[in-house]
Amino acid sequence: MKKNDEIITTIQDMDFDGYGLSYVDNKMIKVKGVVAGQKAKVKIKRIKNDIAEANLIDIIEKSPLEHDDVCQHFGECGGCTYLNVNYNVQLKIKEGIVKKLLDEAGIDGYEFLGVEGSPNVFAYRNKMEYTFGKDNNGNLKLGLHKKGRFYDIVTTKDCRIVDNDFAKCIDLVLNYAEKYNLPVYNGKTHEGYLRHMVVRKAAKSGELLVNIVTTSQIYHDFLELVEILKRADFEGKLVGILHTINDSLSDAVICEKLIVLYGRDYFIEEILGLKFKISAFSFFQTNSKGAEKLYSIAREFAGDLSQKVVFDLYCGTGTIGIVMAPLAKKVIGIELIKEAVDAARENANLNRINNCVFIPGDVAQKLKEISESPDVVILDPPRPGVNPKAIMDVVNFDPETIVYVSCNPVSLVRDLKMLTQRQYKVEKVKCMDMFPHTYHVECVVLMTNVKNG
User: Fold this and answer.
1) Which CATH architecture has domain 88-120+287-449?
2) How many CB atoms lie within 10 A of CB 289?
3) For residue 388, how far is the Cα from the chain centroid?
4) Which of 129, 190, 354, 380 could form a disulfide with 405 if both were Cys (CB 3.0 to 4.6 A apart)?
């Protein structure tokens, strides 16, 4: 086997990050966009030691796991990997992947509680970032990137993971942009105007925000679009229409200037009876009802918090800390992004919670400056996991309990190994499926201090 070889192989197993695995000539072949049981034609793109990575060319035979009830964009859009797989089977796949990672890391002696399914299997997302583009015929597109293609866009009106209001926004904004022939931003030349549309909608209140993202290269007032959206027959309640100016070269949605065209620049979401003010650029779990389950698991794992001090590390906008606060003596949250800390403080005030302190700064550095000691530490880091220095600082605080909430099982397992080499033992692991039809899964881990056991 060598680079650029085209081979036909049967996918035998699944791995994290959406890879299917097969084995040929004593080598493992990793292929994205496939499921176990499929016979696929693939092209080898690189080989390192006994592992080869390949690109999918075609599916020769379907898997017994597959069904045909998919949206019209499936296979072209890169959004959903497992939409063609029964949901209960998806959960089994994710459960198996996480358990395998834990076993291979040598973590044992714990209770594995499987995976909790999302309350909503479809129309569960409260946020989507859509991109403007043009096809080869010059037709305007507004939707998600094509699978494996950075500059090509699919207009995703039939998307199953958002509700009908998202499709209405696509339709209305696309028709408006076509009417005025507004130029699309070109990521190669960095010329043009229309870049993105971000739609956010609260699951509980139904409040809807629409944000049009452009460059500053031309001036357009969007007054007519505002009236069109205000008259639209949305299922939810339109509370804000925004215009964001973004001249950065990055494809990410970056706010250099925010103009409120109508209403306000935030919506209110409710989690476990608590209200959260979510601004246009605030981080918030994209599956609101799934977040309720996730935080309930974390709260259950934390145990009796009465008269206990809780550290909420990588606290973001303070959701987990605020959920824990009514049951605890005190919550101290630390987050690198100052705007998120400001939002956390505002959300605590919104719920009349006065036993939370939120601190902006690097977790590893700020832990050195805190004189109080925690009884319980909540770790909810970004995908790369916890800074090793921060792990040692947590260990030095000697908390009774650590609850680790992770969006990346690979970095989670790495950090668990480091903690179990000290005085902590993994007691329970439970997965929460926040992202049906994708390969992503959240994990919640309970660890206890056994130094004096």
Assistant:
1) 3-Layer(aba) Sandwich (3.40)
2) 17
3) 23
4) 380
Per-residue pLDDT reduced to its tens digit, 304-352: 999 999 999 999 899 999 999 999 999 999 999 998 999 999 999 999 9
% residues pLDDT > 70 (the chain)? 100
d(CA 195, CA 186) in angstroms, rounded, equals 8
Among the listed residues 348, 313, 319, 354, the one whose alpha carbon sits nearest the alpha carbon of residue 334:
313
The residues annotated with a catalytic role in the active site are 407
| The domain over range 127-271 is classified in CATH as 1.10.10.10 | no
β-bridge mates for residue 263, sequence order: 240
pLDDT tens, position by position, 397-410 = 999 999 999 999 99
Domain ranges of the chain: 6-66, 88-120+287-449, 127-271
Q: Hey, what CATH topology would domain 6-66 get?
A: OB fold (Dihydrolipoamide Acetyltransferase, E2P) (2.40.50)
**What per-residue confidence (pLDDT) applies to 26?**
87
Name the residue with tokens 């549309």.
197
